[in-house]
């Protein structure tokens, strides 16, 4: 089938959608994603029909069953951020190198997270990845690009590896994050990426708008998120923010049947042992109490998915600036 303009448009739209959502879009939402009017639904449906069994598939009479068939996007719901994975791996290897010899059988937390993400990312693509520490270190001495997902990184030389001549490579040292709370550090490095990009491209307004957005709207509807990205100040950041997965499906944040949002900062709350909910940020929790803010109604999981709520994952940043 030749690549027609509308076919590519639909593929791009779906790829964008699945970077953020676990379930497929409705026809209405796909129209929106394509920048078309709801009354053009029939046209979009006609286009989809010509792509069925080739690029896309869905179950008749089953809502949100639309999915991409291209192998590399087959399991978009479990898309794993490559840059985060490399940061965990690099940090883990540097931490491991610092361990005394007799403690080296213990895997540092960052390395454990990095390896499991690496393994999962490969699994989803039907590829091989190191399964244990010895296999990992064998791989670490070979080209980074021998791990297929890493080939997606632009300008990465095939000569680069995580370990070179028995020591952690310069590449890994550059990618590592420092500090004790690795998860928070990785989140912060994502923000640093945005900051550096904005600085390098004189996008001060864009950076201000970005900070304002993640602080004032940690949780928002996908349609609103898209509207925001269409604002002139966000235009130059669109691609970057999607790649860094600043906002993702709320579904990825909690296993619970329902979500409880903090009435003040609107982040997903944590459950106390007694079953009640509290903000993850103690300072915010105190302010909620002193201003006597009432809990917000819980959002059932199905509704969160169907309403397409997305949330940003940069909690460490929010905690600092709230
Ligand atoms: Zn809060």
Q: What is the 3D shape?
A: globular
Counting DSSP E segments of at least 2 residues, the number of strands comes to 11
- Count of all domains: 3
Strand order, main sheet: write it out: 5-11-6
For the termini, the CA-CA separation is 52 Å
What Rg is obtained from the alpha carbons, in whole angstroms? 22 Å
Bound molecules: zinc ion
Mean pLDDT, nearest integer? 81
Residue stretches low in confidence (pLDDT < 50, at least 5 long) are: 72-78, 316-322
Strand content: 5-15%
Helix content: 40-55%
SSE succession:
HHHEEHHHEEHHHEHHEEEEHEHEH
Which structural category fits the helices and strands? mainly alpha
Number of separate helices: 14
Largest sheet at a glance?
Answer: 3 strands, antiparallel
The protein's oligomeric status is single chain
Structure commentary:
There is one protein chain. With 322 residues, the protein is mostly helical. The chain has 3 domains: 5-77, Arc Repressor Mutant, subunit A; 82-175, no CATH class; 182-321, no CATH class. The chain has 14 helices and 11 strands. The protein has helices at residues 5-20, 27-33, 41-51, 82-98, 109-124, 133-140, 170-175, 182-200, 204-216, 222-230, 238-243, 282-290, 301-306, 315-321; strands spanning 56-57, 67-68, 163-164, 167-168, 219-221, 247-249, 258-259, 270-271, 277-278, 299-300, 309-312. The chain has a 3-stranded antiparallel beta sheet. The longest helix has 19 residues, at 182-200. 29% of the residues are buried. Mean pLDDT is 81; it is low at 72-78 and 316-322. Bound molecules: zinc ion (ZN). Zinc ion binds at residues 262, 264-265, 267, 279, 281, 284. Zinc ion is lined by residues 262, 264-265, 267, 279, 281, 284.
